[in-house]
Please model this.
Amino acid sequence: MSSLPSSVDIAIIGAGAAGLGAAHALKNAGVSFVVLEGRDRIGGRAHTIMASPEVTFDLGCGWLHSADRNSFVGIAEQLAFTIEKSRPPWRDRAYEAAFSRAERDDFLRALEAFFTRTAATAASGHDAPASVCLEPGNRWNGMIDAICTYLNGCELDQMSLLDFEAYEDTELNWRIRRGYGALVSAYGAGLPIALNCNVTLIDHSDKRIRLTTSQGTLTADKVIVTVPTNLIADEALRFTPALPDKLAAAAGLPLGLDNKVTLALDGWDHLPKDSGLRGRSSTARVGSLQLRPFGQPCIEGFYGGSFAREIEAAGEGALAAQAIDDVAALLGNDIRRSLKPLAESRWGADPFARGAYSHALPGHADKRALLAAPVDDRLSFAGEATPPDFFSTAHGARDSGERAAREALAWLGKR
Model:
């Protein structure tokens, strides 16, 4: 947008998947609205770049999880984005460089047994850290903990067992060849979005809501808030009158950390494309690697939890250095000369994210519903932290934005 409107019926804060989902739901509803985005781009934690002329890289979300129920699948088809439906590079497609077949089968049995215990323990309805379901002394506990850092951005002792089990996964995972972030960006094309417009205060003390932004102020009848939980908990976005219940809910749903890196690979065409690679570890301090995604000349690394935080704190380039060391440890030191850093994410350092995606702390599994609850039929809350089942995903965020838009329209008597 060339200029910020002074007044709208509905203001949407955040142009990630949730904000864009809300905007699409309002597009033909006969109301005035605007999406306010602090970054200089749309998409939020969905962001695709060309890491090199030959390598497309999703810095953020990259998989259409639960693809048979993922609303972005239909959107991709409408926008003519090619969907890659081959099996993901984990579990049975892992490259056998670090694990023997027998070891991998033993690990998978231990992992399945852990998931069986989490389901059985959660059935009691009593919350606890998910780590209580680890079998004492099991040789694979460190690797199972690492899996949690990939799924949730945190270790099992920081993860609510009930929230862990509430997540819905149909185990069908597809990809977008041009990038998930590119799809989300295309989905937002043509919507009224004000970029570089950081909202710092929502004053809902008067009849109309007043928003303070980096580009000035505007008023709205209704507001849809889609920012990450860490921004609410840290009061980077403030409310007046204060909303202590929302702050408490957001604090119970912090963003864990997962970061990704891509390394250019010169040669080594014998390596299987789209294959997973991971070393053995007695702790969660281990990354997950993907060889030649889409057949591209690169290796991707994925690191989560406290290990990812430690690497990010070491500064730019630390993640690439860690990934190169890990690849060399698994495939031999000769590969070092064939690897070159291309790009890496640092979501914890991103002021508009401050992490990757949400998880409920032990004892806080109820906070997703509390965060999603509207306030005074004027403020609606959406985002990846608010769905009861598809949380921590782009499609869950998009769907929550649509839900929030329906709430706002009902309050305005439009639906």
